[in-house]
UniProtKB/TrEMBL annotation:
Signal peptide: 1-27
Record-linked Pfam families: OmpA
Alphabetic keyword roster: Coiled coil, Membrane, Signal
PROSITE patterns: OMPA_2
Alphabetized InterPro entries for the sequence: Bact_OuterMem_StrucFunc, OmpA-like, OmpA-like_sf
All residue ranges annotated as the OmpA-like domain in the record: 204-316
Protein name (record): OmpA-like domain-containing protein
Amino acid sequence: MKTFNARHLACLSLLSLNLGFGSMAFAAKTDLDYQRLRASLDELHNDPSLGSFATAEQTLARQAVDALLLGGDAKTRTHLIYIAERRIDIASVAAQTEAEQTKLTQLEREHDKIMLQASQREAATARMDAEKQRIIGLAQAEEADRLRAEAEVSAQEAEASRLEVDQAKRVAKAKDTESSAGRKEAELELALMRSRLDNLLITQGPRGPQVRLDDLAFSGGGLKPDAKKHLQKLVQFANQNAGKSIRIEGYVDNKTAASVAQKRAESVRDALVGAGVAASRMSVSGMGAEQPLVANDSDEHRAQNRRVLVIAENNGG
């Protein structure tokens, strides 16, 4: 009887030991599954491009992974592992979908922005073309009415210049797409100078027909390089009055040295000589600040007074 009991106890001990090892192996397997799934979920969460998306799906996946820690039989654990894997797959796909949707939304916004900028550039170009036609039309109308008094013509030109510069500033401000407003304003001033030189207004002065070169055509004491390329109308004026002496008078404002007036007049003479007008026909004089068109009480008025007058003198002067 004692032998039977001892043998029975030994068998029971061996069976208990086997069951204990089985439980430990199963627990170790469960830990490995949990660690694997948790690592996959952490990798998605820490992904800089996907981690911030599909937060609800990630939460559900994390809950499914944590459910493995609650225990259960082998069948239950297998089911829980399957659920956790699917939840992680769903969270990953949802995060990728949201990320792609975000990129698509950004691309659509950039497309809308580009289309808006293109529309603004087209509108600005149309305004500039319309303004150019308006300036040309105004110059032609003034030329047709050249017998009006010089003072009246000067006042009209001053008002037109103010409107043109204001409009140029508005256009430059609307076109801050590609370059600074300062450069755009300089380009518009250059276009305005070219337009005025290409459409010189001939007026009848007390000494004969005359044309006036505005301050825009000069830099310091001489003609701007680009202005020299647009003197065809001035050369034509001199050639149309071939039988007359040409007098060139330079004027400045009360804040500019009188020598500048002389130098500007000489630069106009030199340009005409270069274009084939005989130097013997021309006389040059720097008038300084004499005979201002308007009072020297503002930068705009002083700019009007800085000018060069080219006169085809009647009766030989």
